[in-house]
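lol forgot to send this yesterday, sorry. struct tokens for the thing we talked abt
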């Protein structure tokens, strides 16, 4: 099964094409650096109220300080959100409901890549827990406020690693073994499967769920999770560095998915050449198009999250 891509997209879409967002509120996870930072910057420049959700308030406030230096008129709100602990994710719901009337954009951007074997507060492999489970829980907890306005959007950020992911979900606590590359790929596959399944389950299509990937972008994701890379990993990064695009360019697909009138629910956007370039409609892993596999992941995830919903 392969993705059907029928609608051509504008080849040179850029942040100046984002419509005015006055009166709209956006929440971005991991907005203190990389893709999340440039997504926040672009949305604020179009007058959105941007919630900067980070693991600590210190990180959120540091990011806001930098953003305000660039855009003194920007409207930013710091939010502490520790995605490694589902209890903390639940606590965020009240903070959003108490302080905001609506949420027009939820951008599930934060991610962990290739760390040593680590378990979340609830005992799940950390990449699956942070990249998928926590974002799914956050989305479901915030749905009531997202659904207040029609055509609000939920963007879940995946990566090209989804094509290396496997379904089955029988090692999500890393009890049998741990392979950091495989676990990352599985979590990114789960991201796009969740985005598509959520869109399919949204009643009357009042809101949109989409997926996006940045291609190969220069962010601190690798160094943040692996401060002491092996010589082979360092050599690989240096070898492929010339084809990397900037984090600012890498943010364009998720910005397109979040703001473009052309974007549709249940679609997946990435760079024109898959690893770099302006955003376009992008193919996905065949598993993401398989309704049964998506349903199996959904039910497995709901089973895990049931005590937090």
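and heres what i got for the seq, position by position
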């Amino acid at each position: 099964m392969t993705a059907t891509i029928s609608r051509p997209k504008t080849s040179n879409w850029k942040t100046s094409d984002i419509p005015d967002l006055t009166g709209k509120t956006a929440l971005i996870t991991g907005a203190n650096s990389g893709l999340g930072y440039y997504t926040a910057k672009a949305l604020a420049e179009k007058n959105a109220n941007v919630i900067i959700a980070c693991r600590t308030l210190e990180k959120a406030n540091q990011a806001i300080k930098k953003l305000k230096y660039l855009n003194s008129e920007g409207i930013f709100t710091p939010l502490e959100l520790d995605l490694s602990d589902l209890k903390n994710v639940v606590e965020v719901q009240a903070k959003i409901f108490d302080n905001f009337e609506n949420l027009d954009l939820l951008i599930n951007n934060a991610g962990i890549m290739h760390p040593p074997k680590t378990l979340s507060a609830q005992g799940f492999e950390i990449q699956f827990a942070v990249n998928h489970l926590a974002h799914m829980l956050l989305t479901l907890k915030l749905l009531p406020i997202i659904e207040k306005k029609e055509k609000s959007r939920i963007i879940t950020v995946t990566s090209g690693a989804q094509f290396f992911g496997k379904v089955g979900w029988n090692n999500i606590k890393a009890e049998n073994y741990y392979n950091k590359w495989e676990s990352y790929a599985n979590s990114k596959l789960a991201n796009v499967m969740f985005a598509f399944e959520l869109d399919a389950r949204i009643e009357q299509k009042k809101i949109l769920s989409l997926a996006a990937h940045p291609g190969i972008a220069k962010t601190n994701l690798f160094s943040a999770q692996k401060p002491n890379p092996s010589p082979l990993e360092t050599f690989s990064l240096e070898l492929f560095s010339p084809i990397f695009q900037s984090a600012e360019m890498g943010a364009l697909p998720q910005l397109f998915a979040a703001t473009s009138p052309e974007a549709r629910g249940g679609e997946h956007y990435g760079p024109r050449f898959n690893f770099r370039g302006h955003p376009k409609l992008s193919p996905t892993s065949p598993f993401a198009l398989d309704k049964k596999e998506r349903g199996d992941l959904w039910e497995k995830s709901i089973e895990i999250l049931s005590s937090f919903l």
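The two ends are 33 Å apart (CA to CA). anyway ping me if u want another try
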